[in-house]
Amino acid sequence: MGLRSHCKSCENTAGRAYRTSTAFKARIPYARPSSSYVKRCARCRIEKTAINFSPDRRSKNGLDSYCKLCKVLLYHVRVSDSQHRTARNERARVRRQDPVHKAKVSQYNRSPVGRAIILRSILHRKYGMSESDYARLLERQRGVCGICGRGPSEIGRRLAVDHNHQTRCVRGLLCNSCNAALGKLGDDLFGVRRAVRYLEACEDVLC
User: Fold this and answer.
1) Does residue 130 come out as left (phi exceeding 0), alpha (psi in the -120 to 50 range) or beta?
2) pLDDT averaged over the chain?
3) 3-state SS of the chain: helix, strand, coil percent to 5?
4) Which three-class secondary structure state does DSSP give residue 170?
5) Is residue 80 a contact partner of residue 74, using CB atoms and an 8 Å limit?
6) What is the mean pLDDT of residues 18-23?
7) Nearest-10 crossing angle of helices 99-110, 112-122
8) Residue 207 above 60 pLDDT?
9) CA 117, 123, 125: angle at the middle one, nearest 5?
10) Dihedral pair phi/psi, residue 78, rounded to 5°
11) What phi and psi values does residue 175 have, to the nearest 5 degrees?
12) pLDDT tens digits for range 83-132
């Protein structure tokens, strides 16, 4: 709701009670080190006086770990890196929209080398497989779909990897039609069995 759990009156009462408690009186007040205090900067490793450091209540000595000069240099480095990344991303965006670049990328993706790289990336990213694992599966299924028995030459593309969507385990290689059919049936045995019972019961209804 955007409101505190205690009302203002209760919070004021709790605040007054804490300020009069022994814990509040016994707390250690913050004290900035004297100007003669010497500390070594964690970045440049040079010993400097306390006046060269910004205050930091979180540290034991009440001073920042970096001197003021190093903090200014780090800020400019970060700004420069950010500007460089922004310019690089803008150049990449313009290049991706270039029709000539798009044509080159499309031509490369259709080449044998590009297809092999895309296949390797998909297998590793989606299924945790290598090209040798895919080749072993294809050899075990004699180069055809595990359901309909059609090969890549008949369907016009490589066989898709079929996996269990719950356990993420790879089951085999299927053509796109069979793989999509399993997904439409719920990707389990119950859906397939219901489809089989339906076909058996309704085989001659309209004949």
Assistant:
1) beta
2) 85
3) 55, 10, 35
4) strand
5) no
6) 73
7) 80
8) no
9) 95
10) -65, -40
11) -75, 165
12) 888 888 898 899 889 999 899 989 988 898 888 888 888 888 888 888 88
Q: Please tell me the distance from the alpha carbon of residue 165 to that of residue 159, in angstroms, as a whole number.
A: 18
User: What's the CA gap between 126 and 120, in Å, rounded?
Assistant: 10
Partnered with residue 47 across adjacent β-strands are 40
Residue type for position 152: P
Distances in Å between the Cα of 151 and the Cα atoms of 59, 118, 155, 171, 178 are 69, 20, 7, 17, 12
Tokens 């989606």 belong to residue: 126
Q: Can you read off the two tokens belonging to residue 90?
A: 């803008």
Structure token digits, residue 177: 């039609």
Which domains, from first to last, does the chain contain?
A: 103-192 (3.40.1800)
Cα atoms in the Cβ-side hemisphere of radius 13 Å centred on 146: 18
In the beta sheet, which residues pair with residue 30?
none
Question: Does the pTM exceed 0.85?
Answer: no
Buried b (16+ CB within 10 A) or exposed e, 96-105: eeeeeeeeee
